[in-house]
Amino acid sequence: DIQLTQSPSFLSASVGDRVTITCRASQDISNYLAWYQQKPGKVPKLLIFAASTLESGVPSRFSGSGSGTEFTLTISSLQPEDFATYFCQHLNGFPRTFGQGTKVDIK
Amino acid sequence: QVQLVQSGGGVVQPGGSLRLSCAASGFTFRNYGMDWFRQAPGKGLEWVAFIRYNASNKYYADSVRGRFTISRDNSKSMLYLQMNSLTSEDTAVYYCAKDYDWGSSDYWGQGTLVTVSS
Fold it and tell me: Which pLDDT tens digit goes with each residue over A21-46?
């Protein structure tokens, strides 16, 4: 099975900061990666699929990049509503595993 | 608008069974694959199972294979997850979700809590 490792697991940042989260796959998954945002007690929200395609309605401050085994989610200027946990998920076959998550907290 | 409305959660004893349901509306259900996910209290997301649009293929996480069965009724726009031989490790909020581009999930149900406890 493909394993996904996110780093960091926890990130403390301020409004306006540029934030980067990394997701590493245990084997080549091409561009088959999605990113989700989840706020406490809420349903996960799709942000990005195909590694870099922004889902409709998602603010342009979010961007994704990478292919193969290394991927990044970048928030160019952190906003108050962005404090949440972020998960990557591989879509290159089954099981469709998730990374362990990165919690972005207020500094 | 797309809606996925879940039902069927609750408290069950270890070794027991439960069936979750997910009622879909607002899209052509029969054209889309569907997933089940779960999230244990305070933990991350776990993919549980997937079923193709026509039920021709079903896939399961190792942790549930042989105990859980995903199914669908396209005539009723319903998705199901039959869960047998439940253990405390299965305690979680369970989500159904609609498949989207590249296999991502764009719409999610509201989640339903399954608690396995004696």
Answer: 999 999 999 999 999 999 999 999 99
